[in-house]
């Protein structure tokens, strides 16, 4: 059913839906003649810049390489590198060379780099900036970016700087049963109608929220909101009322768009009871457009959708875009809130826009006419990343329906061979987020999907974008994030705050434009500082991820959350190292696992434990493998079968809360936990061990 769905969506392009958060971008068909040729810089630069090509160390033999993006599709990134080399008189070597790469130049010349990106990717602005950024200032308090510029976020999404045929498809909206195509003209007109109705309901800075699925109306409501200077926050209807109120009551929204039901697994699921609770808990609401059923709103009317749209004072109001400062807030996202109230993370227009366009156009080589799909809900940061594909001129696919858990892993486990049924000639990129793919899955994808750029990517809600990104200039290595993003001064630090080639904390040591503009709500500034800039120094962003940077490939090896780091007998390592062993050596026996370090008051040392469905024989085998492949100090003290693992509503495993529970803390279960019963199981387990 899943593979059939992409054929229904389009006969010209190929799309595969996934739930392990991969996106597939699709150019016109090509012949991948150079896939396994390692592209080494400089390949097509002027001769004056190709004389000092340094010889790099070979990657370790265990790091399997799958080659790079075909040469004819990476001209944009090569040209950008050649442009920088020529303009700034640089003699670059390969991107694996940390000391003499485009990445190195980009993080040592922050204002110059981001100014070049502005011009290269195209930012539509009514007034150009006076200064990119003052690079001498610390990250906190946050410094201004592109000061003096005047622009509008929605205008950049709806009117890309590349020529667009208005009659071409901008959006494909898909459910389990229906498909609809929206041209650029259709999309712009519908945004105009929504903005005309909203214009008398909000003023710049008002918060507009959406309790909505991933469909075209959610996109249109967001674009109408931001065209007027409003700030958008979306949460999908699969969240409970408590989870929604924990977030939105901090925002005091003026308008809420809402779906009265969600449709998945072949049937409708009513949302009205949850919606009633949410509306009662938001006394600031003045307007509630909804598809059916009117609800009582404290300070204004609840409209049926068409009634609201018909309420515009000027039905013929043209589509206009309020010109605002570059850092004007456009989105509010939320931290997971697994151990406390979710933090309200405000992202600005230029930071979101320029970072996304850099990632899509330069690092992902996305182009006008590509078809871009990302499985996501409106809650997750990847929805915003998907929407920005429009700013490139790509066609985006919005899918609202049943999720597909661990899609690539399931295909791998069932030895599915997609190309035996579908040619997939247009498919060229598969991006995986949330967790790095197991090495075996890299092998499977290249066997089964052919010449694609398979890139695990990493970033987060906090930056609404990526620290670890795809790159058309370096090969893909199994088990690694392909490259550190251009302009992102990512480093790996030990507990003393010093760079290390061993495993350590992910830090970013230079300012970057997609840094949140602020935290909304009470004590927002102090929460901001404590969240990112309190661990080392206010000049270094501490992201909370535990990683290792491969000194030979410059790939990022993600090892879990640093606040969930394990440290038995003084050995620091991340849970992902154990997960990789389990999935490599026990793919049939272990469905999933949770590895945490527990240290109670009575414990002399931290001891690790894992949750798996396993027998005593399997427990022994796991211990033997961990001891052999890592060390005796890595062997878990407790291995117990669990009925299920606790996950957030975004599907991420909850490690920190489990660690705290097993260490004897009295942890309140957050509404962001999708299956709170699983945490209760660990509470009981902790009392028995």
Report the CATH superfamily of the largest domain.
ANL, N-terminal domain
| Beta-strand content | 15-25%
Oligomerization status of the protein chains: single chain
| Uncertain runs | 1-62
Would you tell me the overall average pLDDT? 83
- Spatial strand arrangement across the major sheet: 5-4-17-16-1-18-19
CATH class of the largest domain: Alpha Beta
GO molecular function: acetoacetate-CoA ligase activity
Domain AMP-dependent synthetase/ligase: 166-410
Pfam families: ACAS_N, AMP-binding
Domain Acetyl-coenzyme A synthetase N-terminal: 101-156
Fold and architecture overview:
- InterPro entries: ACAS_N, AMP-binding_CS, AMP-dep_synth/lig_dom, ANL_N_sf.
- GO terms for molecular function: acetoacetate-CoA ligase activity.
- Residues 166-410 form the AMP-dependent synthetase/ligase domain.
- There is one protein chain.
- The chain has 689 residues and is of the alpha/beta class.
- The chain has 3 domains: 2-46 and 106-152 and 345-549, Rossmann fold (3-Layer(aba) Sandwich), CATH 3.40.50.12780; 185-322, Rossmann fold (3-Layer(aba) Sandwich), CATH 3.40.50; 566-688, 2-Layer Sandwich (GMP Synthetase, Chain A, domain 3).
- Helices cover 28% and strands 19% of the residues.
- Strands 5-4-17-16-1-18-19 form a 7-stranded mixed sheet, sandwiched between helices. Strands 23-24-26-27 form a 4-stranded antiparallel sheet. It has a 3-stranded antiparallel sheet with strand order 2-3-13.
- Helix 4 (110-121) packs across helix 11 (349-363).
- The radius of gyration is 25 Å and the shape is globular.
- Residues 1-62 have low confidence and may be disordered.
């Amino acid at each position: 059913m899943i593979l059939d769905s992409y054929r229904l969506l389009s006969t010209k392009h190929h799309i595969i839906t996934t739930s392990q958060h991969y996106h597939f971008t699709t150019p016109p068909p090509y012949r991948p003649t150079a896939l396994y040729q390692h592209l080494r810089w400089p390949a097509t630069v002027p001769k004056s810049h190709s004389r000092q090509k340094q010889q790099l160390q070979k990657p370790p033999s265990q790091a399997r390489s799958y080659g790079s993006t075909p040469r004819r599709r990476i001209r944009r990134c090569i040209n950008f590198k050649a442009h920088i080399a020529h303009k700034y008189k640089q003699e670059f070597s390969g991107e694996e060379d940390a000391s003499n790469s485009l990445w190195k130049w980009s993080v040592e010349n922050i204002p110059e780099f981001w100014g070049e990106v502005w011009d290269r990717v195209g930012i539509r602005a009514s007034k150009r900036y006076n200064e990119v950024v003052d690079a001498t200032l610390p990250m906190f308090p946050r410094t201004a970016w592109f000061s003096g510029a005047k622009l509008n976020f929605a205008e950049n999404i709806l009117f890309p700087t590349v020529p667009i045929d208005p009659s071409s498809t901008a959006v494909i909206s898909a459910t389990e049963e229906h498909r609809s195509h929206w041209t650029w003209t259709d999309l712009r007109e519908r945004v105009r109608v929504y903005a005309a109705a909203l214009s008398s309901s909000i003023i710049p800075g008002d918060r507009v929220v959406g309790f909505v699925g991933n469909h075209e109306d959610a996109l249109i409501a967001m674009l109408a909101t931001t065209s007027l200077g409003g700030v958008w926050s979306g949460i999908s209807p699969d969240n409970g009322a408590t989870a929604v109120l924990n977030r939105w009551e901090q925002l005091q929204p003026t308008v809420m768009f809402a779906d009265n039901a969600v449709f998945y697994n072949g049937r409708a699921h009513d949302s009205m009871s949850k919606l009633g609770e949410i509306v009662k808990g938001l006394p600031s609401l003045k307007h509630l457009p909804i598809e059916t059923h009117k609800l009582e709103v404290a300070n204004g009317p609840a409209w049926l959708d068409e009634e609201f749209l018909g309420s515009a004072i000027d039905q013929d109001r043209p589509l206009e875009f309020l010109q605002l400062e570059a850092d004007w807030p456009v989105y509010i996202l939320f931290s997971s809130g697994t151990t406390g109230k979710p933090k309200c993370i405000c992202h600005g227009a230029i930071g979101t826009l320029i970072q996304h366009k850099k990632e899509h156009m330069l690092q992902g080589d996305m182009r006008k006419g590509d078809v871009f799909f990302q499985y996501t809900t409106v809650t997750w940061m990847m929805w915003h990343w998907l929407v920005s594909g429009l700013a490139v001129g790509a066609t985006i696919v919005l899918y609202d329906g049943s999720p597909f858990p661990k899609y690539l892993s399931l295909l791998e486990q069932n030895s599915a061979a997609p190309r035996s049924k579908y040619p997939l000639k247009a498919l060229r990129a598969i991006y995986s987020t949330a967790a790095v793919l197991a090495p075996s899955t890299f092998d499977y994808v290249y066997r089964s999907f052919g010449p694609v750029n398979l890139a695990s990517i990493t970033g987060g809600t906090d930056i609404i974008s990526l620290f670890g990104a795809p790159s058309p200039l370096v090969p893909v290595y199994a088990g690694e994030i392909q490259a550190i993003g251009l302009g992102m001064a990512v480093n790996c630090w030990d507990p003393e705050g010093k760079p290390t080639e061993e495993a350590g904390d992910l830090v970013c040591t230079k300012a970057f434009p997609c840094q949140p503009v602020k935290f909304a709500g009470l004590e927002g500034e102090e929460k901001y500082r404590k969240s990112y800039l309190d661990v080392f120094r206010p000049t270094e962003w501490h992201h909370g991820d535990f990683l290792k940077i491969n000194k030979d490939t410059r790939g990022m090896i993600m090892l879990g959350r640093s606040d969930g780091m394990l440290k038995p007998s003084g050995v620091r390592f991340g849970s992902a190292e154990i997960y990789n062993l389990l999935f490599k050596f026990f793919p049939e026996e272990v469905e999933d696992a949770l590895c945490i370090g527990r240290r109670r008051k009575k414990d002399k040392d931290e001891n690790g434990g894992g949750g798996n469905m396993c027998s005593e024989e399997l427990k022994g085998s796991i211990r033997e493998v961990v001891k052999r492949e890592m060390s005796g100090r890595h062997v878990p003290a407790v291995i117990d079968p669990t009925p299920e693992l606790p996950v957030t509503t975004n599907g991420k495993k909850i490690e920190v809360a489990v660690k705290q529970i097993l260490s004897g803390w009295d942890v309140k279960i957050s509404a962001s936990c999708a299956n709170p019963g699983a945490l209760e199981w660990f509470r009981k387990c902790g009392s028995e061990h």
